[in-house]
């Protein structure tokens, strides 16, 4: 995994799932040695969590000594990069797309994963996948193709998003409090409530639940709760964590936090 590499590059033709032979110019290595790009294709990788990921626009460079994964290519896709304790992670939000471990000998990050070997499908012209299946299925109609979509297959192959490990540590009650608003509910409560405000103390894991008719009541209910713990428990809230929903970003909440 290389932060100075402009493209993903691979010297082994057998690693490519698809490959188009074309003159792609030359690339310069760190010692200014030029290598000829002879094609562009895709390479399928199996990541550390057994999830498969397809690298696109991979340059076929036979003269390279090793495979190179470009950090800048991931950056151009909007992914973030995080390096900590000798581990490099590529992140899409909270999902870890790929990670590499630092080699103590040369300081490079080596991908925690492997290449899924495949016979390269070498082609000169692309064909639209929809058209391809239209032909394979005996010129089936567009409506027929849509009906072939299987929702259960998609849901069955989905993966749970991995969340990073929290770094905060609370040492006493109400030092760190979580608050969130849920709603609106499609069915109202007998009293007309459509929203639920939950407040959880991180240290004791005690939770308070308030039913609201409208999300504009969030600040008032939270302020009532804060008054309650100050009067009954003689303590003050130190840190409030929310999901940055608009109900927590009002000027009233900002003034409350400042004071």
Task: Please supply descriptive tags for the structure shown above.
single chain, four-stranded antiparallel β-sheet, 6 helices, alpha+beta, 2 domains, six-stranded mixed β-sheet, 259 residues, Nucleotidyltransferase, domain 5
Summed up:
The protein is of the alpha+beta class and 259 residues long.
Q: Could you describe the 3D structure shown?
A:
This protein is 19% helix and 32% strand. The protein has two domains: 9-122, no CATH class; 176-258, 2-Layer Sandwich (Nucleotidyltransferase, domain 5), CATH 3.30.420. It is flat and about 75 Å long. The protein has helices at residues 71-76, 129-136, 142-147, 151-156, 218-233, 251-258, and strands spanning 9-10, 16-21, 26-28, 34-36, 39-47, 52-60, 80-84, 87-92, 95-102, 109-111, 113-115, 121-122, 176-182, 195-201, 207-212, 239-241. It is an alpha+beta fold and 259 residues long.
Blueprint (SSEs and pairs):
Layout: E1 9-10, E2 16-21, E3 26-28, E4 34-36, E5 39-47, E6 52-60, H1 71-76, E7 80-84, E8 87-92, E9 95-102, E10 109-111, E11 113-115, E12 121-122, H2 129-136, H3 142-147, H4 151-156, E13 176-182, E14 195-201, E15 207-212, H5 218-233, E16 239-241, H6 251-258
